[in-house]
Specification:
16 helices, alpha+beta, Poly(a)-polymerase, middle domain, transmembrane, two-stranded antiparallel sheet, Beta Polymerase, domain 2, membrane, MID49/MID51
Length: about 450
Amino acid sequence: MNFQSTRRRGEDGVATVINFLLSNARLVLGVGGAAILGIATLAVKRLIERAGRAADDEKVEQKISGLVSASPPLTQKGREGARINRVAKTTKQQKADLCQPPRSSLETQPNSDPKPKKLQLCVLTLQERLQQFYHSRAALAPHEVQRAQALALDICTEVQGFLHRRHPDMPLGEMSIGGSLLDNLQVVCADHACLLVPLELEASLWRVPGEETLLTHPLHWMVRRLNLEYFPRGRSYWDRYLVGGYLSSEALIRWFNKAVMETVNWPTISSTLDCLVGPALGGSDLRLEIRYLLGKPVFISILPLLREGDVVLTAQPELTSPWVNAWHLSLYPWETRRLVQLDAADGGCRIKTLKILKAVCRLNRALRPLEAPPLANLILHLSDGQSDWSDSRLDARFQQCVTELIGCLERGAVHSHFKPAVNLLNRLSEDQVDQMGFMLYCAASEPEILLMT
């Protein structure tokens, strides 16, 4: 077919080719195959006719060459074309569904000028879309949060009562609920919480110094046993978990797994709470799964921890492996406290931006590996150089976060705001970084596609 000829000749040529294909298809494919081919070729013919009416051939060729040259550099060539087509198709369809005004409003203006119709299609700005996404997906309903908190407190009471009855000599502090559920940072649905189990150490027998860390891992701290020559092993309750003169988080987790997860009468607790409670399968952490007849399950993690001033060390072998006696320095309290202080000082939207980003990453399969710590620290870094975090600038801050994330993925690093030596992206694979970079690259020019989930 010669597409360089005039429009009329081009249309006649398309019709001739279509008729030729259909006449031969009846012989080769039969009536059914010819019908299917006819539908497909008719759709192609209409598409070409619309393209011819919309612009001349030179503009079409320029637009196609522009799209080809704008392909993202972060992905492999084989994956590039398929993903661009998929994102473009999804974006066009969803934008048409979300932005199409009511049918009645178009029918009431039959004599209106056709030029302003393009302006009527998109009725929501990015700022309005972000506000809508925040209230519908990121922010949780108060009754949902209260229900999850009440359930977590009931579990906390049961576990604490069991430990006091079975192990009355164990020096434990008052257990409590912590994490994003308590700090109003949970998004999409209230489905997880942390049960904090503080251990009480004798100040004269234990030392939790910041300088005693693993040299290449500033978040891995050591808890040393002191004065073993004067106070031999056995003077402290926690001496039974010593490994090489240090309190072992892995040994403690193994004991909790046997003493709590495998010993507690979970069927009795299930009948008391009118739900199904039991240890969650898989993983090395202490995690309970609570299921109702209807609704998604709720997971509660049991987290032994040590407090020394404003330092919080948690027993999380999945983060400190293979070092059996290392404890994880949790930066979550520092990050959350700093974000709240900054928003309180200028009435900013940092917390709202963080919750929107968390919801976007949780609802988007490509961005799901991007967890809360890198996002929170990215906002803290941006707050150092950007002073206007008012709610009216939510769209600008959101776009800035997307752009900065692309740069961070290209460098392969988001450094901790409080521990610059810590790279919060070091647990991601190259393929995960590649997929996230492509998705954010597509959203750099049209951030609305991140909200269409």
